[in-house]
Amino acid sequence: KGSDAGTSVFVQTGGDLNLDVTENDVPKDFIIFLWKFGTKGVVVTFYPNKQPQVQSPYTGRIESFENKFSVKLKNLQKKDSGVYVARVTTAEEQILTEYNVTVQDPVSSVNLTVDSVSITPDSSSCNLTVTCRTVEQSISRTFSCINRICNQEPRDRSKVPNLGASLHVYLLNEVIFCNHSNQVSWTESNKTIQEFCPG
Question: Where residue 110 falls among pLDDT bands split at 50, 70, 90?
Answer without folding.
Answer: very high
